[in-house]
Amino acid sequence: MLQRLLTSAALTCALSASPLVASALAKDAPAPSPTKRAWVIPALLAKAKKEGALTVYSSTNEQEALPLWKLFTDATGIKVSYVRASDTQLLGRIGLEARARQKTWDVFDSTAVEKLPASFLKTINPPEAKNIEPQARDPNHKWYGVYAIYNSPAYNTTKVKASELPKTYAGFLKHKEWAGHVAIDSTDNQWLAAMFKYYGDARARKLIKSLVSTLKPVLVNGHLALARSTGLGDYWISLNNFDNLTINVKLSGAPIDYWGMDPIALFYAEVGVASNAPHPNAALLAANFLLSKEAQTFITKKGRIPVRKDVPPHPTNEVSKLGDRKVVAIHFTPAQQQKWLHTFNDLFKAH
C-alpha cells in the first residue's frame, strides 16, 4: 500500500525519506514520556504504536509540514508518510481511491476537508478541540480547524505607498495606473462568496466586473506563489490573498504587508480522519496533536494563525490590526464549491 502512495515524486514526500528527519524516525528511537504532552493519550498511544504508521494527505508545503510531523514522531515513535499536493489534486485522488475501495490515507489536513462527502470522514471528538475557537469546530464533528485563514489585499511596500491604499474595493477603481500590476489566485472562491454575501448579488457582480476591467488582474496558480511574487515586486498588489501567507513572506524579510478591508473572508485549514483509515488510532492521535498547544505554537513560526485561545499569533498584532472590519465566515459544500468556481471564472476569465 505504501508503494502506491509513493509512486509520484511530484505529489508525495515520505518523512522517513528525508535526511533531515530520518534519524528521528528510526524504530529504536526513544519517545519522550507521554506525561510531558497533554495531547498524548497513553491508552490511545498504545493502540497507535501497534499500528506503527500514519499516512497524512495535505496541501501544506513540505518546508513547514515535515518539521511539524517530526514533533509527532519524536513524541510517539510513529512513522509518518506525508503526501503533499494541491487541494484539487488531493480531492481527486481521494475520490479515485474511494471508488477503487482502497484504504490509503488516515488524516486529511487541508482547506478542502469539508468538501469531502460526509461518509468519507469519521466522526471524532479530539480532547484538545475544547481549547479551539467554537466556530472552528464542525457541528457534526467531522472536521476541526487547524489554523484560521483571513483574506485581505496585500501590497509590495516599495511599489505602493501605504497612503495610497484604498479603504474600500470601490477605491481600487481610482487607480488605473495599477492595471496589469495586480494579481489574484485563480481559485479565490471563498473571497468571492464573501463579497457577494457582503454587497449582495447585483452590487457585487457589478463591482467585480469593474475591478476586472480597470485593474486587469493577472490570475496566479497558488496563494503562496502569489505572496512570494508580490513580495518580490512582480506584482504591486494582491487583490486578495491569505493573510498568513503574506505574513510568511513578510517574516522572510520581503517588503510586503496586508491591510484590512470589508469584507474579510474567513475559513479554516481543517483536519479530518478517514472513515476507513488504515491506522485509525494513529489518526485520532494525530488529529489531537494538530489541535494541541505544541502544534499550534509551532505553526505560528511561519505566520499561520492559530485557532487556540491560549496561543497568540506571531507577530502578536497580526489579527488585531485588521480592526473592526466585517468578517464573513465561509464554509463550502462540494456543490457550493463548484458554483463559486464557475462564478469566479465567469467574472475573471472573461477579460
Q: Which tags fit this structure?
A:
11 helices; D-Maltodextrin-Binding Protein, domain 2; alpha/beta; globular; disordered N terminus; twelve-stranded mixed sheet; 351 residues
In terms of topology, how is this protein built?
Elements: H1 2-5, E1 12-14, H2 42-51, E2 53-58, H3 62-76, E3 79-84, H4 87-99, E4 107-110, E5 144-156, E6 182-185, H5 189-199, H6 201-215, E7 218-220, H7 223-232, E8 237-242, H8 243-251, E9 256-258, E10 264-273, H9 280-290, H10 293-299, E11 305-306, E12 327-329, H11 334-348
Parallel strand pairs: 2-3, 2-4, 6-7, 6-8, 10-12
Antiparallel strand pairs: 1-3, 4-10, 5-8, 5-9, 5-10, 5-11
Helix pairs in contact: 2-9, 5-6, 5-11, 7-8
Helices, by number, come to 11
The number of distinct β-strands equals 12
Q: pLDDT average, as an integer? A: 89
Order of helices and strands: HEHEHEHEEEHHEHEHEEHHEEH
- Structural domains: how many: 2
Could you name the CATH homologous superfamily of the largest domain?
A: Periplasmic binding protein-like II
User: Which CATH class of the largest domain?
Assistant: Alpha Beta
Poorly predicted sequence stretches spanning 5 or more consecutive residues? 1-35
Give the CATH topology of the largest domain: D-Maltodextrin-Binding Protein, domain 2
Main beta-sheet annotation = 12 strands, mixed
Structural class: alpha/beta
Alpha carbon gap, first and last residue: 46 Å
